[in-house]
Amino acid sequence: MNRVPLTVRGAKMLREELEELKHVRRPQIIEAIATARAHGDLKENAEYHAAREQQSFTEGRIKDIEGKISNAEIIDVTKVNANGRVVFGTTVVLANEESGEESTYTIVGEDEADIKEKLISVTSPFSRAMIGKEEGDLVTVDAPAGQKIYEVVEVRYGID
Asked: I need a labelling partner for 94 at 20 to 30 A (CA). Which of 23, 73, 87, 138 fits?
């Protein structure tokens, strides 16, 4: 499997989720299955089937996270010498050339991406257009509403 880039923050979040699933969620599900079994006939026991479904989902997620962590290339952007360029993990302040409106985004791994939090995946067209740019450079992005042009106002090395 290929190495998957992950920020220090993203790796921490995955490890915390894994701990929660293994040490809190898994025991709760095991207890729910035992309780449902105590009710008798399993064929028509909705509680039992629901608990087994939760168990299946949880075990799948545990394996998924373990795989991601084992294949992760954890990148601490504060220790990367990027000479002012946009790279994985940087926080970028952009100004829309048309409106002048500023937006701030952080380039993160696919599993960390959350557009509501302004965390965008390194594989997104928007991120790919920014990679390698410096303050003052223009970034052209093909958006569904047409081509957008942004100026790189600031490049920060560290997640806010």
From this structure: 73
**What is the amino acid identity at position 29?**
I
Candidates 3.60.21.10, 3.30.70.20, 3.10.50.30, 1.10.10.10; CATH matching 81-156: 3.10.50.30
Give 13-24 pLDDT, tens digit per residue.
Answer: 999 999 999 999
CA distances from 90 to 5, 12, 76, 108, 136 (A): 13, 17, 10, 8, 16
Compute the distance between CA of residue 160 and CA of residue 46 in angstroms, rounded to an integer: 45
Q: Which residues contact 103 (CB under 8 A, 6 or more apart)?
A: 93, 94, 96, 118, 150
DSSP line for 52-92 = HHHHHHHHHHHHHHHHHHHTEEEE-GGG---TT---TT-EE
- Rounded to the nearest 10 degrees, the angle between the axes of helix 46-70 and helix 26-38 is 160
> pTM for the complete prediction?
0.78
